[in-house]
What does this fold into?
Amino acid sequence: MFPSVQSGFRAFNTKFEGCIPFMYLDIKGLVTVAVGNLVDPVELAQALSFRFKDKPGIDAPGSPATPDQIAAEWQTLKNNPNLAREGFKACEPITELELSDDSIDSLILDRLTRNESFLKRQQWFQDFDTWPADAQLGLLSMAWAMGPAGPEGFPKFRAACQNLDFNGAAAECKMHEAGNPGLVPRNQANFTLFSNAAVVLAGEAQGRFQRSNFFYPRALTKADIRQAIPPPGSMG
It folds into this structure.
């Protein structure tokens, strides 16, 4: 992936998943942490560098948690399925452990690069490295939400990607929103990302755009091909 995509992914994804340093239950009752990172089963949580929060009742804030302490907190959440309906805020007062910001960055990057590696092994996405940055971000967004194998279930989408038809990819990238309203804004963002990629390719020959720059959240149009549009400093 382009450096612009890697450096901007956390900010982009946080808009849809939030960034929660402590464990909580997602809408399906699965234990989750950070930016929608599943730590279910418990061994996934025990592999992370959880530390004790700085809050009343904690004797040694910032001290590392043992695997047994991580498992105990994980099980406390798992034993209360009502927390899945109440949301992450209900989990904050009953949790004592958290991840540092650096640990969250590492967790995100590890999952992101593993997703990328999986996707590029699929014939439909084997030219991923040459895609415009907006398209790279769009596919990685879908993989984050569904798992890296998820886009394989969209035959028209993957065919469009294989043909570098990013307008077609935009039309076919919508994930199923029933029972998961949080996907609505992500679907909207993905549509913009793939649509932007089509404009970037159309304007590239005229020297208007560089594939390595992303333009989201701006929604590019054909009119933008007539003038050079500088990429945003961040995704905002």
